[in-house]
Amino acid sequence: MDYMIGVDIGTTSVKTVLYDTDGKMQGYSNNLYPLYQDVPDMAEEDPEEIFSAIIDGLTTVMRKADLKNGTLHGVSFSAAMHSLILLDENHQPLTRAITWADNRAVQYADELKENGVGKQLYEKTGTPIHPMTPLSKLIWLRNEQPDLFKQARWFVGIKEYVIYKLFGVLQEDYSIANATGLFNIFKMDWDDQALQVAGITRDQLPKLVDTTDQISGMKADYAGVIGMDPNTPFVMGASDGPLANLGVDAIDPGVVAVTIGTSGAVRVVTDKPKIDPKGRVFCYYLSEGRWVVGGPVNNGGIVFRWVRDQLFAPEKITAEQMKVDSYDLLTEIASKIPAGSDGLIFHPFLGGERAPIWDANARGSFFGLTRTHSRAHMVRAALEGIVYNLYTVMLALEEVVGKPSSIQATGGFARSALWRQMLADIFEQDVTIPESPEGTALGAATLGMYSLGLIDDLAQVKNFIGVANVHHPNPDTFEAYRTLVPIYIRLSRQLQSEYKNIAEFQRKHPQQTTQKK
């Protein structure tokens, strides 16, 4: 049996999956690490904890491979976008990994939007202006921590740090670079204006390579621990969003991938870069001739977790005692409430928001509450609010790339029949759920197989995906959703003028707790 490993470096865990060359899973490891949130708006991770999780994951799945009767052809990476680590001249971290969820650069992102420079940069980089980006983080660090900023010799993301630790080479793939806000998607190089705005030079950044680029010669100590031949080729891979599209076979024109995990996204693949005149969607590189256009949202499954923990704590305890999934219990409660939650609307902006409003100050709200509404209404409204927001991303995407021909949905939410049906009903379109667990890791492995010549076209990923389930929209829900979605959108616009005010109040009066999640 021949093997390929896909490694997905996520926000709270690294998933390492051993596949055979038919795309079948032969081994799996999920290694968690904490997200540090010591002060308001912080969201950091320890790069050494992540690196250890990767070593553990590779070691675990290598034990599943029968290398006496087979060959490990390679390893390919996916990684979360927008992370930033400052390194000294010896490549030692001066900071933790500042993740996409960190909002401390909000003031500087707002200034870029207000002075018009942000629009100029977006039109060249395809990356919306937001505190998530390394561009905004660099401006923030330069202004708020100048001594630390001056100490830095290199500015990298988590994947680049891992590659350097393993191989002693500092390089960055086009897809990850594309998401920094520093990369010109039309020149396929670092953008001079963006570098000037950030206050850095190109020799402080890694060498740029394609997503299919290979590297080998792992340091012997790590190879020995993992149990892997040090000459095993590692494929650079891409960022997690584009690879999620690949992993669910949403790479043909018009095929949209909707993902809801902790966060969420709506994405479609095009054959060339596309920019939204209104700046609402991103454009990220996947591979030659394939670009992913779409919008990410901060608030997916994390909102459902908040509902469970804050509004349904007794039910959570009951579920644990009954040894049933607490989320299944909540969706069962929500299913008793009619579509539209009897006029209760929830804006799910518990952690600011990216697409389509790109406002780190956005805050959540229930609208339409009456004495007749119950907690059951609130959980259903929360689930609907997440999908309403994804639908508004879809509307923005349609203006750029046209109406979708089909929708492929994936992520943790896909386990819920209620949520899958909501997606079909609100989008008023058939929704297909591919049977491809860990689609992002599968996307990484597929790109790796393509790089190594094991397959001759990325489209062969369709052979790796099992039987799909299709959910059809229910016309009985159309009237409610067609009435409520426009109200949801108008409210978003009206509330946006107050988001900054309430966010500033909260920053001045922070809760007297620190969080480590």
Automatic annotation (TrEMBL):
Residues 3-247 form the Carbohydrate kinase FGGY N-terminal domain. Pfam families: FGGY_C, FGGY_N. PROSITE patterns: FGGY_KINASES_1, FGGY_KINASES_2. Residues 257-451 form the Carbohydrate kinase FGGY C-terminal domain. InterPro entries: ATPase_NBD, Carb_kinase_FGGY, Carb_kinase_FGGY_CS, FGGY_C, FGGY_Carb_Kinase, FGGY_N, Gluconate_kinase. CDD domains: ASKHA_NBD_FGGY_GntK. One of its GO terms (biological process) is D-gluconate metabolic process. One of its GO terms (molecular function) is gluconokinase activity. The keyword Transferase applies. Signal peptide: none annotated. Keywords: Kinase, Transferase. PANTHER family: GLUCONOKINASE, SUGAR KINASE. Belongs to the FGGY kinase family. This is Gluconate kinase.
